[in-house]
Each structure stands twice: as structure tokens, then as C-alpha cells.
Amino acid sequence: MRSVCRSRSSNFFDFLHSFQSSSMGKVCGRPTVGANFASMAPAAGQTAFQTMDNRNTSGAEKYANFNWDELGFGIVPTDYMYVMKCSEEEDFTRGNLTPYGNIEMSPSAGILNYGQGLFEGLKAYRKEDGRVLLFRPEQNAQRMKNGAERMCMPSPSIEQFVEAVKQTVLANKHWVPPPGKGSLYVRPLLIGSGPHLGMGPAPEYTFLTYSVPVGNYHKGPLNLVVEDKLHRAAPGGTGSVKAVANYSPVYKAVTQAKARGFSDVLFLDALTGKHIEEVSTCNIFLVKGNVISTPATRGTILPGITRKSIIEIALAFGYQVEERVIPVEDLLEADELFCTGTAVVLSPVASVTYRNKRVEYRTGAETVSQKLYVVLTGIQTGRIEDKMGWTVKVD
After folding, report:
1. Which helix (H) or strand (E) holds 279?
2. Active site annotation includes 242
3. Catalytic pick from 123, 173, 181, 242?
């Protein structure tokens, strides 16, 4: 089964054509946007905060008291979270901001006993002028609605979801890192919070969003190992939604892989064990010549929002994009591999090991993945004009 993506946005394609031909220049066909990033670095003796303060003479907002140069990907508590509740027979109405902290819950809550819950992940980015952008939050909202239907849960409307995210970011705006230092990761949760002993949907639900400033999820290109014994999702299951219970089952495979020196695990389909599906937390793409391939989302693979965006950017660049069943053999013959996701953004893959055979791939400045990365992150951070309408201003 093969689905070839042929449609593309003519406006975006025209924009990319002009972007590549602009005065920014090209290096071997690659837009040299990265060269302009250097101008954002603090001058000698300046901190990042001082640099931003100088740029925003109209009144820069102060940052949280934090060393942004040491920002990793972990819990850094911010100030506020957004909470909204409803019963199983009601719709969500109005929520409110509350100080970030622990939440009280019955020991018999649906999320604790039966794993009835979903989560999302999206990021807020600070532009050079100090303003803050979200990237395609309505897509996360729609994915949560789709997941809620699968998990027999009420869901916030798309408007409620986006508004909750905006309020969370605004309340924690001083935790959005300076340009080039990271982003504010926003985690919306939808959980069965009401008590229920018998197996079935919870009587009450909580929608909650909190945020954490983050840096890079991975440092450098990935070295993956193919897992051919354990599986992350099965046909008819919940692999296509962001259910909380999807993630802990991969811990064993990932822990074992990291103990052997690998970055992460690439899982195969549970039905045949012959086709690649996902890495533990992200989608995967193959590059062979002018063709970019990614596993089709057939119910076991999460339809990533970064994945969707990269497909659209690649089409605009003129690449042929295929969403299809991908045998492991195709993986081993690819020129390039890269992973996409909110946390990993777009991470190149340096090697894949399958049954003790290690295959290496192209990485670096002249690769297709770098070309796509520059455009994706340029749009996300406001360095490149957003002609797709993907970014949402937070003000």
C-alpha cells in the first residue's frame, strides 16, 4: 500500500522559491538562514538577557531568574497552570489559572486505575523582538479530540484548548527562553479524575495545562537500534492517539538500548515484524534520492504535527513524498534518516543497528534534513515569514 503526497500549497512553494533565491544566498543549494543566527549571539561580556533588553528598547519583559545556557529537557517548575473540569454528562465550560503545584485526586480515579488519559505537547517560541509564538496549536487540539473519542472521554473544544494554552503561556511568559536558548514546552492533559471502581469511563474529567522551559531533547545525531521482540502498538489499539498508557510499555526496550549505548529504539509493526513504524517518541523519515518516505499512519502510528509540517515543507521544495508501508530493507538502503516530533523537532539519524548490522547515514550541513530543519525552525521562531498560517501570536 502506497500513498504518494502530491498536493502542495502554491503560495508556500512560491515563497520557498523566492526564499532560496533571496539575498541571503545559498550554500550548495541550501538556504543560508543559519548564517544569520550568529547575529543573535550576545556580544562579549553580555548576557542573553542584556542582549534582549538592548533590542527591545520599547520595554523588554524580564526573564525568570534562570541560567538559560544550562537549559536541558527536564522539569523546571513554572508559576501557573490552567485547570478545567466537567462531569461525564457535561461539556467543559470555563477554566482558570492556578499556581503550579500538586493536584488532589481519589485513589480510585480513572486515570490511576485504568489509565484513562491523554496528553499533548506543543511549544511556545520567543521571537527576536520579544513576542511569543505558538506552532499549530489547533492541530494539537484536534488530535486530543480524536483521542478523547477513542478513549470515551469528553474533550475541550478546539477554541477552549487553544485559549487554555495561550493563558498558560501568558501567565508564564517570563519562562519562555530567549531566542536561540530553547522554548516553553506546554503539556495539556486530559484525564479521568473522578473515582470509579468498576471498569468503565470515569464520572469526572480534568483538563489541565502546564509548561516547562526546555532545551534540546537530543544532543547530536541519533544512533538507533531496531527492536524486533517488543512492540509499541498493535492494530486496533491506541497507537494512533496520544494515550498516556502508550508510553510506559516502551521503557524496557529504551532502557536496554541506552544501556548498550544507543540513543533510542525504532519499533517494527506488531503484525509481521517486517516493517518500520516509530521511534519511541517520534516519527521517522527516509531519504533516497529525491524521494522522502515515512510510514503511513494506519492506526498504529501517531499522526505527528511536526511530521505533517515536514511533509508540507518537503512538497513545497519539490521532493516526492510517500506515506507507505516501509520494509526494514528500505531503511538499510536509505541515504538519510531523520526523526520528527515536538520534543525532538527534527533530529538527524547517524546510524541504525538491526540484528547486529550497523548502517550509517549522511548527516550535516548539506543534507535534506538540515534544509527542512532550517525552514521548519525558521517558521516556528519567526525568523522566516509564516505564509502558511501555522503560527499563533500570544498576546
Report:
1. strand 276-279
2. yes
3. 242
